[in-house]
Amino acid sequence: MSQRTANRARVIRALRERGPLSRRELAGTGLSRSTVTAVVDELVGAGVVTETEGPVRGAGRPAQLLSLHPRLGVAVGVEIANGVVRAAVCDVSRRLLSHGEIAVDDRTEPEKTLVVVGELVDRLLDGRPRESVLGVGVAIPGPIQRGTGRSGRATTLKPWVDVNPYAAAAEALRLPLAVDNDANLAAVAEATWGAARGLRDVAYVYSAAGIGVGFILNGSLYAGANGTAGELGHTTIDENGEICECGGRGCLNTLANAASITQNLRRSHGRELSIGEVITLAHDGDLGCRRVIADAGRHIGLAAANLYNLLDPELIVLGGNLAPAGEILLGPLRESMARRAIHAGEVLPPFIAGELGQDVVVAMGAAAVVLRDDERFPLPVRHTGK
Ligand SMILES: [Zn+2]
C-alpha cells in the first residue's frame, strides 16, 4: 500500500471508529496537519468525506466537522426482544434515518421471527437498494457462547435458547452480519452516541426481561472467554433467596428484574401491573410502587458495588425498562452502592441513566457495530493510490 493510500485509509478508519471529527482531531491520529489537509481535500473531492458545521461551543464560529458521506451506505441494527422485534437504519455519518418495531409473540420460532425482521428491515430501508446496506447487526436477549456460536441457557427468549443466531439470521436476511447480546450492543450505542461517548471503561447495566451488563473495557467490548460476561442478573444477592430460572438461588433477577418488581404489587394493587405502569404510578406518588422500585434499586446497587470493586469503570449507565424510574431507583441504588464499594480515596463513578430511548438503544448499538468495524464491513471506497 502506498503512503498516500495508507493515509487515506487512516482518515477513513478514524471517521468510522470515532464519528464526525474536526481537522484538528484528525491530526491527533498521528498525521501532520498538512497531510490531513491534503487527504481530506482529496476525499471530499472524491465524494467520500463531507464537511458540515458542528455544534457551537462558547463564543466564536462552530467547528467544521468531517464525516463519511451518507451516500456510502447504511447500517441496519436489529433487536430481537421479548414480545417485539425492533430495527434501526443509520447512515455512515451516524445519523439515525429510521426506526420501527413489530410485536411478535414470545413463543414464536426463530425462523418465523426472522421473516418478520426481514419485512421490518425492508420497510425501514424505504426503497433503498439492498446493495447500499453495509451490514446488519442483530441483538438477541442472551449470551452467545464463544465456542459453539449458540445462545446460552440464560437467553430470556426461550425459543432462541441453544440456537445459532448467526446461522439463522444469515440464512434469513442474506446480508453481511454481526450478532451479539443486547446489553453489549446497547453499551456500544451509548458509547457511540450517548452518555458514554468517548469513554474507555464503562459498564452499561441493561434491564429487559433480565438484568445484564455490557462492558466496554480499555475501549473495546468485553464478552469474556465464553461470551457470558456481564450476567449481572445471575450474581447472588441473597444466598437464602428464591430459586432463579437459571437454577441458582437468590440471583439479582429474582429480586430486581421487572417481573419480580411487578409481582410484589399483586396483592396491594389487585392485578398484574406492567413495569411501565408501576413506574408511572411511582412518579405519580404511589407509595407501594415507589417502595418496590427503591428496593430493587438497593439490590442493583449491591451488585453494582461488587462490579465496581472488581472492574473500576469510570461510568456506570442504566438502560432498558427500569431507566424511566429515574431517581426513584437511582437514589437508593447509589446509596446502596456507596455503602459497599471500596473507597480508595477516589470518588465513586457516576451511576446515571442512559441518553438513548429504550425503544431504539439496542438496535442503534447493533447498527453502530457495523459502522465501526471496517474489517468485517468495508465501505465501497476505491483505493486508487499511486
Ligand atoms: Zn439466576
Characterization of the model:
This protein is an alpha/beta fold and about 375 residues long. It has 3 domains: about 70 residues, Arc Repressor Mutant, subunit A; about 130 residues, 2-Layer Sandwich (Nucleotidyltransferase, domain 5); about 160 residues, ATPase, nucleotide binding domain (Nucleotidyltransferase, domain 5, 2-Layer Sandwich), CATH 3.30.420. It is about 40% helix and about 20% strand. The strands form 3 sheets. The chain has a 5-stranded mixed sheet. Strands 10-9-8-11-12 form a 5-stranded mixed sheet. The chain is globular. The N and C termini lie close together (about 10 Å). Bound molecules: zinc ion. The site of zinc ion has 6 residues, from loops.
Essential attributes:
about 375 residues, Arc Repressor Mutant, subunit A, Nucleotidyltransferase, domain 5, five-stranded mixed β-sheet, 13 helices, 12 strands, binds zinc ion
Mean residue pLDDT: 93
Would you list the SSEs in sequence order as H and E?
Answer: HHHEEEEEHEHEHEEEHHHHHEHEH
Strand ordering within the main sheet: 5-4-3-6-7
Largest sheet: 5 strands, mixed
Please mark out the parts with pLDDT under 50 across 5 or more consecutive residues, or reply none. Answer: none
Task: Return the CATH class of the largest domain.
Answer: Alpha Beta
Helical content (DSSP H or I, runs of 4+): 25-40%
How big a fraction of the residues is strand? 15-25%
Structural class: alpha/beta
What's the CATH topology name of the largest domain?
Answer: Nucleotidyltransferase, domain 5
List how many beta strands DSSP finds. 12
